[in-house]
Task: structure prediction
Amino acid sequence: MPKHIEVKNKTSLPGKGEPNSSADLLNPDGTHVFPHRHKWDWFKKPSRQVSE
Result:
C-alpha cells in the first residue's frame, strides 16, 4: 500500500487508520506479529468489517 507504516516496540496498532492504508505491528526482532487485512462493507451504515 502506498500509505503504509511499521509500528515498532508497541503492543497494538494505532486505533484508527487512514482509509486505504496498511500497518505492520513488528515485534522486537523486526518480524510481523500478525499481518492481516480487514474487509469492510462500505454499503452498510455505519460501515463495518465483514467476517471472512
The beta strands are 3-8, 21-26, 40-41, 48-49.
